[in-house]
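(Fold this chain)
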Amino acid sequence: MSSLSDSIELYLLQLLEQSSGAIEIQRNELADRFRCVPSQINYVLATRFSPERGFLIESRRGGGGYVRILRMKLDSPHRILKEMDDTLDQRAALGYVARFKESGFLTEREAAIIMAALDRQVLKLGLPQRDILRANLLKVMLLAVLRHR
């Protein structure tokens, strides 16, 4: 059985597929629909709809407030690599890998190999060195894959 976060993510992704790549939702209405607190919606938005995964979130609070989710197209993977931070935590790296995989620039196998190499259990360094090394490794691995396409 999937978790509540998975169900909310799936619902929002389905809405995005049916739209032109952007949706507006009311946080409270979505929380009512899934019988959860609005902070659960915030958690899903922050962890599953991050810029690394190719999404922009705009939010307005208050009575007429909304959350707008925009899906950015990955038309230039090299541009994304240039814009990537010099330090990446594991969650951000996972987001980038998922984005490249979903856009067809990585196979399932390539993504699994990259994520295994970037795992904090493999990169046994203290911070910030671990996040700097993870960012450098991700960039060179993605470049290597892109060169051979």
In short: Residues 129-147 form the longest helix (19 residues). The CA atoms of residues 66 and 120 lie 36 Å apart. The mean pLDDT is 91. The radius of gyration is 17 Å.
